[in-house]
Known about the structure:
The protein has helices at residues 4-12, 20-36, 41-57, 66-82, 105-118, 135-146, 158-168, 187-200, 217-227, 245-254, 275-283, 288-299, 302-309, 315-327, 331-335, 349-365, 369-373, 380-390, 394-416, 422-431, and strands at residues 94-98, 123-128, 150-151, 174-179, 204-210, 232-236, 257-262, 270-272. By secondary structure, the protein is an alpha/beta fold. It folds into 3 domains: 2-82, Four Helix Bundle (Hemerythrin (Met), subunit A) (Up-down Bundle); 94-282, Rossmann fold (3-Layer(aba) Sandwich); 288-432, Signal recognition particle, SRP54 subunit, M-domain (434 Repressor (Amino-terminal Domain)). An 8-stranded mixed beta sheet has the order 3-2-4-1-5-6-7-8, with helices on both faces. Strand 2, helix 6 (135-146) and strand 3 form a beta-alpha-beta unit. It binds guanosine-5'-diphosphate and magnesium ion.
Amino acid sequence: MGQSISDLMRKILTKSTVDRDSVEALVKGLQRILLQSDVDIKLVYNLSQNIRDRSLKEKVPEGVTLREHVTKVIYDEIVKLLGEKQETLVGKKRIMLVGLFGSGKTTTTAKLAKHLQKQGLKIGMIACDYHRPAALEQLKQLGDQLKIPVYYSDTKSPYEALNSGLAKFQKMDSIIIDTAGRNALDKELADELKKMYDLAKPDEVLLVIPADIGRIAGKQAQEFHRLVNITGVIITKTDGTAKGGGALSACSETMAKVKFIGTGEKLGDLEAYDPVRFVSRLLGMGDLEGLLEKVKEAEFNEEDAEKIMSGKFSLQDFYNQISGMEKMGPLDQVLDMIPGMKHLVPENLIEVQKGKMVKYKCIIDSMTKKERGGDEEIHSSRIKRIAKGSGTNESDVRELLKQYKQSKKMIKKLGGVKGMKRGNLAKMAKKFGLKI
Ligand code: GDP
Ligand code: MG
């Protein structure tokens, strides 16, 4: 989509108030750009409908220009499809990759294995492509490079390879299954995939699609989704094309979100999907992060901040808090904002955040919505279930709950500190990553 969206906005949205004509002109231009970028027509229509409605209806926060507000609206609507946050595969035991011939499955299998290995996990890969003769050699070589075991079947049966491989790698943290592709999703491939899916019972099925796939992405994704339940999308070859509209269609058809993107042929060329980075690349906007930050700040609501600071603090808030700490810089700076704050912070909070973020996220992901709300006590049978579901130990779950309680107490005290300026309270809450 290149430079064009920024250009368009600059040309059209120079006024300070929303007016129907300028939004209409913007939507028209945006539609043209999206279509050029291979987004399918129905999706373009839906997207522009939402963008039009929200741009006209929503109040532009004080201190934010109309252009910034509309950019935020466009960003929101796009990440609603692609994914609003970064996802992790840690804790997923059986990961199956599917996609057509040449989409990048085998390469991505090895890239993912490397990515998880770097996080200290034990990985095994199973070669299940016996359709293309060279496929097995390719995965074996990649496995050798990474010193990650590859299981394959001498009988050249993908089902036999899968069954025995799963048994052999039972003790591994994750098993990544590379499947065969075809030029099209014909009956033969469909039958094979369905059978593989039933045998593997994967925790994660990733559809691998190249960025340059074009307008057929949606239809293809839908066909795969009907056979095997797609849980995530990996877009490969983003280094080769500026277009990326196919990803939007694939996500919209499967409701699955983008989890990783491939940026080159080497095994290190894999990035975890990052919404801001991805959308700014897609729309050709270099300053998107700063802009979103500015809009968020302007939307920041003092009363909500007070409510949260007075003790309403869920496990999800806790997660946001520890992830936010990574970005907030030296803790001392934050602590200096209020008197008496320093001794209220559990000493190890920052350290905890460093090593355990990923684990904590898996644990919180394995909780029910109610448990995440933090209002009810989580007893040992639930702890057992959560540990199992998240692939962690019970002691990890207990530790997380303890940290959460400490933080909750701290936030409560903080909210009760007298004499803090109103503005500071909101700033504090935000620094702690509380979602307001
Ligand atoms: P498969 O048939 O789906 O298993 O696809 P392969 O993994 O064999 O990949 C097909 C070709 O695409 C190979 O030449 C890969 O090196 C190349 N490839 C895969 N991912 C990327 C990527 O992100 N960027 C680039 N430039 N090439 C890629
Ligand atoms: Mg392959």
